[in-house]
Amino acid sequence: MTSRIYVAIDTPDLARAKALAQRVRTHVGGLKLGLEFFCAHGQAGVREMAALGLPIFLDLKLHDIPNTVAKAVQALGPVEPAILTVHASGGRAMLEDAKAAAPLGTKVVAVTMLTSLDALDLTATGVTGTPHDHVLRLADLAAEAGVDGIVCSGEEVGAVHKRWPKGFLVVPGVRPAGGGVGDQKRVVTPRAAMDAGASILVIGRPITQAEDPDAAARAIAATL
Ligand SMILES: O=C(O)c1cc(=O)[nH]c(=O)n1[C@@H]1O[C@H](COP(=O)(O)O)[C@@H](O)[C@H]1O
């Protein structure tokens, strides 16, 4: 079965990105490229990574007025990513227009509440209620807007899965038991996220910063 792990290749160094992808490719289902990589290498860099033969998750977390986001998504069309992120808090019209502008084969997923935030951070942004409530509210908004799914932490994915069983649910911020969490705050193990209903996992540093990234990816895959 294809691995449900997308490895987050968070580096601006193209040679390192390619080398990492080659090392872990047999234990991951796809490559996630984010802002760091895209700002350094743009669409040409994405194409070079896509040439390695794994699906590309382009994580640009677009968040702007509907017209701007739709035009940006349209401009990204030629690279036809398998998955593309926008922010759910951009609102319903933005989500609808992003989906309408995306290539047919691209899943548009809406980031709800970043896994690097906790309840205190949420309150500080002026949002009342718990992270759980906030994620469910944004997940409902994303479902109504017709995008393919959402990004949330493993703490909420079970509840989202119950409300939206067909949603494509992306869970980042996962850590093998006993691993360091870094800047992530709402963290679960890869296995717990899958058991709760994640469609795919996004995993960066536990693989990319390991002494042997291939062995780390294999070890995590073996727990799923
Ligand atoms: O959209 C994402 O992928 C994302 C959303 C989120 O809420 N939290 C989050 O960590 N991510 C991404 O997931 C990856 C997590 O990396 P690690 O913490 O190194 O495993 C990074 O590339 C983040 O940009």
Automatic annotation (TrEMBL):
It holds the Pfam family OMPdecase. It is an enzyme of class 4 (lyase). Keywords: Decarboxylase, Lyase, Pyrimidine biosynthesis. GO terms for molecular function: orotidine-5'-phosphate decarboxylase activity. It catalyses: orotidine 5'-phosphate + H(+) = UMP + CO2. Residues 4-220 form the Orotidine 5'-phosphate decarboxylase domain. Its EC number is 4.1.1.23. Substrate binds at residues 10, 32, 59-68, 115, 175, 184, 204-205. Pathway: Pyrimidine metabolism; UMP biosynthesis via de novo pathway; UMP from orotate: step 2/2. The keyword Transport does not apply. The keyword Lyase applies. The active site is at residue 61. It comes from the Bacteria. InterPro entries: Aldolase_TIM, OMPdecase, OMPdecase_AS, OMPdecase_bac, OMPdeCOase_dom, RibuloseP-bd_barrel. HAMAP family: OMPdecase_type1_B. Belongs to the OMP decarboxylase family. Type 1 subfamily. NCBIfam families: PRK00230.1, pyrF. Homodimer. Catalyzes the decarboxylation of orotidine 5'-monophosphate (OMP) to uridine 5'-monophosphate (UMP). This is Orotidine 5'-phosphate decarboxylase. It comes from Sphingomonas aurea. The lineage of its organism: Bacteria, Pseudomonadati, Pseudomonadota, Alphaproteobacteria, Sphingomonadales.
